[in-house]
Predict the structure of DUF523 domain-containing protein.
Amino acid sequence: MTAKILVSACLMGHAVRYDGAAKPLCHPAIERWRAEGRLVTLCPEMSAGMPVPRPPAEIEAGRTGASVVSGAGRVLEKTGGDVTEAFRHGAENALALALATNCRFALLIDGSPSCGSSFVYDGSFNGERVRGEGVTAALLRRNGIEVFSDREIDVLVERLAGEDEAAP
């Protein structure tokens, strides 16, 4: 069976980011995967009912997406609102969709408090990055789904090539 890939909706050109923008990822593999029926698109925040646009949010300083998943961290808006439960709900929705559609891989936008897989912002709203992952990326990884950032698409291409060659 062809491996499915859960993809951040903003990478597919949907204007779902906090600022109402998209971040379309242009790569030959995207069109090939789309034609093969591999892509499953979701914005975790939108699936949790968050509006577009919405205030910027970051995981609180010193915490990670895994902290939020375990209840030991929060996601806060720049305006001071606590949106932790919405981010947790969005992550749970992403996991449920990935499991229901047999996604073994995820291609997520880096930097997001949901989808970041190698870095997120430090909670100061000053544009400072820290190594870490968002809430959705953490929950997906915890459940055995391989997560790749938009900057790692070539690594995912190679990973899938190996997977496809090994398939019976």
